[in-house]
Amino acid sequence: MRPLGTRVGAHRLRGLRVRLVVAFALVAAVTVTTTGALTFREARTGVLQQSQDAVIELLRTQVTRLAPELVLPAGRDELRRFAAEVAGAEPSGAWRVLVVYRGQEATSVPDDPFEELTPALREAVDSRSATVFQRVNRADHTALVVGMSVAFTSTESGRWPLSGLQVFLTVPQTTEQAYVDALVTAVERAAVPALALAVLLALLAARGVLRPVRALRDATRSIAEGRLDTRLAVDGSDELAELSHTFNETAAALEESVAELRGMEARARRFAADVSHELRTPLAAMSAVTDVLDEDAAGLDPDTATAVRLISEETVKLARLVDDLMEISRFDAGAAVLHLDEIDLAESLRRTLAARGWTGTVEARLPEPDALRGRVDPRRLDVVVANLVGNALRHGARPVRLSLHEGGAGGEGSGTGRRAVIEVLDSGPGIPDDVLPHVFERFYKSDAARSRTEGSGLGLAITEENVRMHGGTVRAANRQEGGAVFTVDLPLWRDEPTPDGPTPDEPTRDEPTRDEPAQGEPTSEERA
Fold first, then answer.
1. Angle (CA) 65 68 73, round 5°
2. Phi, psi of 88, deg, nearest 5
3. Most CB atoms closer than 10 Å: which of 283, 309, 341, 483?
């Protein structure tokens, strides 16, 4: 059966790969964006700086060459001619010039409104003698506007007095904008391959990182399935290699501990089985002797008769404990097998009550003969019912009721889905809530101060093992109206008989075995 953690581990593994790819992609996107932005800014600044320096230098050269030829004060026609000559310095005709002198304005292009000139630039030219410039964005284009004041030749004092003549120039930056757009396109085109390369590198890195993680996952699953000799190959000296080395050390320590525990458990089981087996012979002799003594007890003095009866009772209890220990040891060793046979379940329960003299003591609510049939092990079913009824009689209160009915469909081990439900109810005080989870544990006692019990403390544990072998379940609970109820849920049919058991045509033995209590006696179990 596949462990529950496998699917969760697979989801986490895929999630780790996705996170690695996303992280690489984000880093690549941020890197490309940042690098592209910085590159674009520097390239744009360089292009615009080079363009404006060339324009300003050419404007200064042209004004310096033409200004001495302008006679001041000048009229509007002279100013218009001066503006046209300055604009003619650019062969392509992209320059537009505005000349201002003592409130008069003239442009190189007739009736040019010169909208690019801002008040801020006019104020800057009025307040300083240096050349100033400004880039102005319009709806359809970007323009460079340059303004300068024309000064006279320096005097003996070294000063450059202003002539009152101001020259403004506007140049559309169409070429520069094309360069900038080309840079943006180049950055955008470079981003896609960079992201693709980052994703490819992320996949390769994720594959390299997740390979040892997958190996660790598979090794962990292998150990969880019981293969404790699983080890990882240690390659390199990085953190993953250290993790693999630590895993190997942990697995080796776990394998050693489990081997030691299994050895101790096997020795303990073998010891219990050996002790039980060795005790059977002397117990058989003791039982024979006590039977003889019981027959002669009536002729003995009272003290001797009491001692004889006590020895006889204790011998019976010891023999029962040895039988239970032998049965438990077979369960632990995996030697217990089912001998399946198709029987009438109600008739089997009636025979269990009759064999122990409980027919008039226990209220039986059973279906009609042959109304409910199933393939079970008759002997083990007898042990289950006898243990539960005997437990109710000993530790509960009368009336005790035994019922059998057909349960719901479904369940492990059920071929057709039909199931039989057996319930044993008593009218006693019930089972304490803190004891309920432990009633099927071996030798469990709710009162630790009790050193002696009537039963072996193994009856309910044997009951649970027998029910589990049939593919069923047994539960203990308290009724609201008072008393305890034990519920056994068994599949009516099994798809295949146990290999060691008989075929459907071979009936099982109906005679009592050592697992069956003596007639008229409750089984060996005490309620925890």
1. 135
2. -70, -5
3. 341
The tens digit of pLDDT for each residue in 145-184 reads 888 888 876 555 455 577 788 889 888 877 777 777 777 7
Q: What are the φ/ψ torsions at residue 15 (nearest 5 degrees)?
A: -65, -35
Per the CB < 8 A criterion, the answer to whether 374 and 491 are in contact is yes
Q: Is pLDDT at 300 greater than 70 in this prediction?
A: yes
Local structure of residue 447 (DSSP, 8 states) = -
Q: What angle do CA 452, 458, 464 make, to 5 degrees?
A: 150
273-294, pLDDT tens digit by residue? Answer: 677 677 777 877 777 777 777 7
**Has this prediction a pTM greater than 0.85?**
no
With tokens 């390239």, the residue in question is 43
The string of DSSP codes covering 454-501 is SS-S-HHHHHHHHHHHTT-EEEEEE-TTSSEEEEEEEES--SS--TTS
Q: What span, in angstroms and rounded, lies between the C-alpha atoms of 394 and 523?
A: 9
pLDDT: which is higher, 143 or 91: 143
The CA distance from 75 to 83, in Å, is: 12
SS3 68: helix
Instruction: Report whether 183 contacts 95 (CB < 8 A).
Output: no
Residue environment code for 64-96, b if the CB has 16+ CB neighbours within 10 A, otherwise e: eebbeebeeebeeebbbbbbbbbbebbeeeebb
Least confident of 112-116, 270-274, 426-430: 270-274
Query: HEC states along 245-292?
Result: HHHHHHHHHHHHHHHHHHHHHHHHHHHHHHHHHHHHHHHHHHHHHHHH
What is residue 153's DSSP assignment? P
Q: How far is CA 461 from CA 388, 439, 454, in A?
A: 11, 8, 16
Mean pLDDT of 443-464: 66
Within 8 A by CB and 6+ apart from 13, the residues are: 210, 213, 214, 217
Q: Cα angle at 57 between 53 and 60, to 5 degrees?
A: 140
